[in-house]
Design a protein that fits this description.
alpha+beta; Pnp Oxidase, Chain A; nine-stranded antiparallel beta sheet
């Protein structure tokens, strides 16, 4: 009795898939990350986009940061609306995620609220005084994740498919 041996012809192929993140997962990512980008409309022309350090305040559902006098502060106070984005990537796996917050932007001026926010541990990397506390209240929060999905493929089936189409 003779047995024939056929080598394994299946292989794993990776493809990517885009998933919408639920708000709860977006809020977890906002609490874990401390660097993002603020986008503010100037009324006409392209919006101003600036990188900044922040903390997420669960109590007010807000992205909180400090800034100095300047374009960012004046643009925010004039626009009253802003968008904020964070992301993370895994270059080797071609995967990543992004979270976008949009909402009302406001300066925090009440001393007791500033003391409470100060306890959240915001670390400002930029040099110079940053005496203005601002927040963007998370009216809308959306997120997406690119994930890698493994698929078992049999190349013999590809060959048969090509023959059938010919």
């Amino acid at each position: 009795m003779s047995m024939s041996y056929e080598p394994a012809t299946h292989f794993t192929e990776l493809r990517s898939e885009l998933l919408e993140l639920p708000r709860t997962e977006c809020l977890i990512l906002l609490r874990r990350t401390h660097f993002g980008r603020l986008a503010v409309s100037r009324g006409e022309g392209a919006p101003i986009v600036r990188p900044l350090n922040y903390v997420f305040d669960p109590r007010s559902q807000s992205v909180v940061f400090r800034t100095a006098e300047g374009t960012k502060l004046h643009g925010l106070l004039r626009a009253k609306e802003a968008a904020f984005e964070i992301d993370g990537i895994e270059p080797g796996g071609h995967t990543g995620w992004s979270v976008v917050v949009t909402g009302v932007a406001e300066e925090v001026t009440i001393p007791s609220e500033i003391r409470r926010l100060d306890k959240l541990g915001l670390e400002v990397w930029a040099p110079g005084p940053r005496s203005h506390w601002l927040r963007v209240r998370a009216r809308t929060v959306s997120g997406r994740r690119i994930v890698a999905v493994a698929e078992q493929r049999d190349p013999r089936l590809d060959h048969k498919l090509i023959q059938a189409e010919a």
